[in-house]
Amino acid sequence: MTNPIQNYLSKAFRWQRGRQGTGYDKMLLLTASWPIPFDSYLIRYPEGSAIPPHVDQVKSGRHFRLNIILKSPKSGGEFICKDPLFATSRIKLFRPDVSEHSVTQVVDGSRYVFSLGWVLGKNTKT
């Protein structure tokens, strides 16, 4: 069994391909499983990357994610969310486990996002 600290150190502060397989990269910054399970990433969307509409399933609890746009591309790369909890041009708070979300194709330039996610309590849709 892998030690959680060794697992973290093997992934932290290294660019990895995003799980959607659509050209974005993510860098794990910090994560913990206690007292509130959370993760934080720096996400890089180079020109041509996008994320199709999807919902992120969790085994239990309510998943929340706060995305802060650090750098917007010159064109494209718009975050689309069906039911955000809070949204401004640079700050997006949403429930990725219940709200369909996506990112349009980055057409010109690149996009960088700080993303903080956490899971609370039992799995409910409210």
UniProtKB/TrEMBL annotation:
Domain Fe2OG dioxygenase: 33-121
Organism superkingdom: Bacteria
Matching InterPro entries: Oxoglu/Fe-dep_dioxygenase_dom
Protein name: 2OG-Fe(II) oxygenase
Organism: Undibacterium baiyunense
Lineage: Bacteria, Pseudomonadati, Pseudomonadota, Betaproteobacteria, Burkholderiales
